[in-house]
Amino acid sequence: MSRAALQTRLDQGLAALGQTLSDDVRAQLIDYVALLARWNASYNLTAVRDPLEMVTRHLLDSLSIVPYVEGATLADVGSGAGLPGLVLAIVAPQRAVTLIDTNGKKSRFQREAVRSLRLDNVEVIHARVEQVEGTFDCVTARAFASLADMLTWGGHLLAADGRWLAMKGRRPDDELAALPDGFRLEREHEVPVPGLDAERRLLVLTRTGAP
């Protein structure tokens, strides 16, 4: 897959999202996809094999939530291949981003991406989310677990006035009905991903009181 084709797919998606990124940032995003495709051939980091599909299903899917990310610090729980955390770190280098995952090979890939892409604002933590300390202005989770499990395991990471951004497909009414005490759904957004014929929904969760 040519770099030009990947760049064209990214640029078309950015236009559809109404986002403008610098040439350097766009190049970094393509570098990330190229690195992911190389590692994926050996380490099976994602079920998406086609780099062009990676642009749609990984880059554009992650970029779709950019307007809703707030604060100076972000933790990406169950980050996997660094999604959406690495993408969000690339587009906002002023934000401190922490990637959390229990899978060793995925954490190794994250560290290689941080080194290769020169991302000074990213920390990689290979651990269970329950073991991670600190609080963050924003916590992201993409296809990680049910809302109840996410918040039971990682709710301590959310600052008192922070926002937890849960990336979902269809509206998970049963999961919303089972939210743990201390958390509530503040708002939700449909976030169409350019080129992806599937429903995407972002749930914004907040605390109902002090942690």
Describe what this molecule looks like in 3D.
The chain has one domain (3-207): Vaccinia Virus protein VP39 (Rossmann fold). 36% of the residues are buried. It is built from 7 helices and 7 strands. The mean pLDDT is 95. It has a 7-stranded mixed β-sheet with strand order 3-2-1-4-5-7-6, with helices on both faces. The chain has 211 residues and is an alpha/beta fold. The protein has helices spanning 3-17, 23-43, 51-63, 85-91, 104-116, 147-154, 173-177, and strands at 73-77, 96-101, 122-126, 136-142, 158-168, 183-190, 201-207. This is Ribosomal RNA small subunit methyltransferase G. Keywords: Cytoplasm, Methyltransferase, rRNA processing, S-adenosyl-L-methionine, Transferase. It is an enzyme of class 2 (transferase). It is found in: Cytoplasm.
